[in-house]
């Protein structure tokens, strides 16, 4: 079988070119002469991820559908580190994409099961505040098109980008407590009552009725009146001013002529 190139990447200073082929080999070439320098052996399935280190020209990362992630020293043609993405009870997960952090100390990867893998040096305490499963309640919401062929959310009849920030739920659609909801962009400074979603029963495409997040809890009108926005207040003032103007004009047209020196609203 004639090998086919699946990926190609230059290293940080462009002195080397690394190619991945469908026979699971990685080859390191001199970018100026085209000379083959090294063959990197380790992958057992096709490789679709080749990433160069942000500032170390010796380092290259590869990842593939075999669930393996390798860190290579391409100047020596040797493997430095490796990781196997084994998922308990399900086998390995194919790695679809990887990126280095700007400081070169961490790697973020995504796999075929929807996992985000963060590999690197240091402590993991910074990531312990987030839940293991993170979905928005609108992720699998059906969409429709209006008469102008614009996309709308089927349930709210709104354009998706105009909807309120979604709620954070687990893979079964169960919402997380308010401390986690504040991790959602747009809900960082919300009061607790805006972080508790409204639940309701919804029929799925299979006909099964399940309890899901419908949207935000309805806010009491009395509570809403206690905290009016600046814009609402300005609108009310303008309406009151217009009403007073109309009343003054009506009284001046029906009543006796005003005496000289009496102030009258125009």
UniProtKB/TrEMBL annotation:
GO CC annotations on file: nucleus
Repeat keyword on record: yes
Keywords: Repeat, WD repeat
Record keyword Repeat present: yes
WD repeat feature ranges: 1-39, 40-82
Matches recorded under PANTHER family: BROMODOMAIN AND WD REPEAT-CONTAINING PROTEIN 1, WD REPEAT DOMAIN 9
Name the record gives this protein: BRWD1 protein
Alphabetical list of PROSITE patterns matching this protein: WD_REPEATS_1, WD_REPEATS_2, WD_REPEATS_REGION
InterPro entries: Bromo_WD_repeat, WD40/YVTN_repeat-like_dom_sf, WD40_repeat_CS, WD40_repeat_dom_sf, WD40_rpt
Entry superkingdom: Eukaryota
One GO biological process term: regulation of cell shape
Gene3D superfamilies reported in the protein's UniProt record: YVTN repeat-like/Quinoprotein amine dehydrogenase
SMART domains, per the entry: WD40
Spans annotated as Disordered: 235-266
Coiled-coil segments: none
């Amino acid at each position: 079988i004639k090998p086919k190139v699946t990926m190609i990447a230059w290293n940080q200073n462009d002195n080397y070119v690394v190619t991945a082929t469908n026979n699971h080999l990685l080859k390191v070439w001199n970018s100026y002469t085209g000379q083959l320098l090294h063959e990197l052996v380790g992958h057992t399935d096709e490789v679709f991820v080749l990433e160069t280190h942000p500032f170390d020209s010796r380092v290259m990362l590869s990842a593939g559908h075999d669930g393996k992630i390798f860190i290579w020293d391409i100047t020596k043609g040797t493997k430095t580190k490796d990781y196997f993405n084994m998922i308990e009870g399900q086998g390995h997960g194919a790695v679809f994409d990887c990126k280095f952090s700007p400081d070169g100390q961490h790697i973020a990867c995504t796999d075929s099961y929807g996992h985000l893998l963060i590999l690197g040096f240091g402590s993991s305490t910074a990531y312990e505040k987030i839940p293991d499963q993170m979905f928005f309640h609108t992720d699998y919401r059906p969409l429709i098109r209006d008469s102008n062929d614009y996309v709308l959310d089927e349930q709210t009849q709104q354009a998706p980008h105009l909807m309120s920030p979604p709620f954070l739920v687990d893979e079964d659609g169960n919402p997380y407590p308010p401390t986690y909801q504040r991790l959602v962009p747009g809900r960082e400074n919300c009061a607790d009552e805006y972080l508790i979603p409204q639940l309701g029963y919804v029929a799925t495409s299979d006909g099964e009725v399940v309890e899901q997040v419908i949207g935000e809890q309805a806010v009491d009108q009395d509570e809403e009146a206690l905290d009016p926005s600046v814009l609402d207040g300005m609108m009310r003032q303008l309406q009151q001013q217009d009403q007073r103007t109309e009343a003054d004009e009506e009284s001046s047209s029906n009543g006796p002529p005003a005496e000289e020196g009496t102030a009258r609203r125009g």
